[in-house]
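Reopening this one. Same input as before:
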Amino acid sequence: MARRGFAAVFRAAMRFARLVPHAYASWSATLGTILGAIALTNLVVRSFHLSLVELLALLLDAYQKTFHPPIAFVFSWLPIPLPAGMKDAVLVYIAMVGVLYRGLSYRGRPVDIAARFARPRLRMFAGQSFAAFFWPYFIVPIFRRPLLLVRDKRNRDLGRLPPMDPNTLQAFLAGDVGEPRVLCDARELIVCYLVTLLGAMVALLLLNAAMNQLELGFG
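Same output, byte for byte:
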């Protein structure tokens, strides 16, 4: 039993490792993860009053000076100033827009699939942007039922297939619409983003703790 459990964990880890390069082929996901990790780290540091080493303190100070003023300006119409923690929360939300931009794209009715992939790029971009910006709403149905992300033979995104029965799926994949192949379940991609985001935050906090211990050891 333990061996089977270890094998299942190993297979999941290997699949995750193979998915990461595809997940971060998008600049929006990369920048969103970096911004989100720093914003989350700053939020945790403020919430738990953690001490910072000089290097990380400089990083978070530069982040606050760069990103907090625009958020304060956008919400300047509020009767009270936005607390620093709320600014971090807003930035985490914005970062998730970038991170989930691809994973929440290509929503639509399961009509003519071939025509669906021939939609104008501007329309596709508008749909992606809308779904990504309102990700708390659009993320719910993805976790209720799997939607398959597909790519063409040149490894370019074709989008997300609407729900369909297995026979229809096989017929589509055997067709000639860009010679599509299944990349992953949309839920796997979103979990990959979330795990990477949280992992980057934990890595920053662990780095800070390790450097704190070094400073104490040499102090």
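So the earlier flakiness isn't reproducible anymore. For the record, The radius of gyration is 21 Å.
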